[in-house]
């Protein structure tokens, strides 16, 4: 493996960490309704738990209401039960075939809890990126130890990996700040 391969691999893994972080942020509730809030809800579908998005169509009616349109007639009560039993604190209401899920406004205290959760997710993502930096630097040091690269190349590679790491950490900070602003907006 060459130094270029190590850098490319580290950057690709850091990008994957950012994507995973973004997915985790999408699951954190803000004041607005978002169909992604229901991604974690599992529905009993003929004896096996299935993600809600695989048995129903999810969309927004307005900024505070999610509509859930089951694909099969008998799934309505099971979907309602699954949403009610999830730890999201939502109370679905059935209107014929359509299930409306109103998203209540969050209290100030709840908003502050959510911002703490966002910061915690951000810190976890930063730790993941820093661990990838360490792994890349260790791989470069191994190349130098095995006499496949010079110490000058090692210093250059470590500086470039640090630049990539700084870029990814700045991106995480930016996303955390944006999400906090979204949560605190009433």
TrEMBL record:
Superkingdom of this entry's organism?
Answer: Bacteria
Limits of the Ribosome recycling factor domain: 21-184
- Would you kindly state one Gene Ontology biological process term found in this protein's UniProt entry? cytoplasmic translational termination
For this UniProt entry, the molecular function terms from Gene Ontology, in alphabetical order, are: ribosomal large subunit binding
Which UniProt key words apply to this protein? Cytoplasm, Protein biosynthesis
Compartments it resides in = Cytoplasm
Give the main location. cytoplasm
* Keyword Protein biosynthesis attributed: yes
Query: Which GO cellular component terms are attached?
Result: cytosol
The record's section on PANTHER family has:
MITOCHONDRIAL RIBOSOME RECYCLING FACTOR PSEUDO 1 (PTHR20982:SF3), RIBOSOME RECYCLING FACTOR (PTHR20982)
What is its biological role? Responsible for the release of ribosomes from messenger RNA at the termination of protein biosynthesis. May increase the efficiency of translation by recycling ribosomes from one round of translation to another.
Q: Which family does it belong to?
A: Belongs to the RRF family.
Annotated protein name in UniProt: Ribosome-recycling factor
Q: What is the protein's species of origin? A: Xylophilus rhododendri
| Gene name of the record | frr
């Amino acid at each position: 493996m060459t130094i270029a391969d190590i850098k490319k691999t580290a950057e690709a893994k850091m990008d994957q960490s950012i994507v995973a972080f973004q997915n985790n942020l999408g699951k954190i509730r803000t004041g607005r309704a978002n169909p992604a809030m229901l991604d974690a809800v599992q529905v009993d579908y003929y004896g096996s738990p299935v993600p809600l998005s695989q048995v129903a169509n999810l969309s927004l009616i307005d900024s505070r209401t999610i509509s859930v349109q089951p694909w099969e007639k008998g799934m309505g009560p099971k979907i309602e039960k699954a949403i009610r039993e999830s730890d999201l604190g939502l109370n679905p209401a059935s209107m014929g075939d359509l299930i409306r899920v109103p998203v209540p406004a969050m209290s100030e205290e709840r908003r502050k809890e959510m911002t703490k959760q966002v910061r915690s997710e951000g810190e976890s993502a930063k730790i993941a990126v820093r661990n990838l930096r360490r792994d890349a630097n260790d791989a470069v040091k191994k190349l130098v130890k095995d006499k496949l690269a010079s110490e000058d190349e090692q210093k250059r590679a470590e500086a470039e990996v640090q630049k990539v790491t700084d870029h990814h950490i700045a991106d995480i900070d930016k996303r955390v700040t944006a999400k906090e602003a979204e949560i605190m907006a009433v």
